[in-house]
Amino acid sequence: MINAVADRIFIRLAPDTTATSGGIILVDDYHRTRNIGVVESIGDLVTSVKVGDKVLFHQFDELPTPDDDLVVVRENSILGVYEDE
Predict the structure, then answer these.
(1) What's the rounded Cα separation, in Å, for the pair 22 and 9?
(2) Distance, CA of 74 to CA of 2 (rounded, Å)
């Protein structure tokens, strides 16, 4: 586990899908941008989300980490928080 600092947020990306919601199988070289995930760690200055929230974030603001399914964004990159479904 890594702890975020300041206004940074660590997000675990949603799994990459191999089929559309309609059941169409996607080819191997097709990669949809993953910009939905679950917050794993937040910095001291973050006030708009909490650990465990499912969020939508701006796809060009993410920074990669050694773990391909974990990214870092600043709080102002969060576009929305999903409500309980």
Answers:
(1) 32
(2) 15
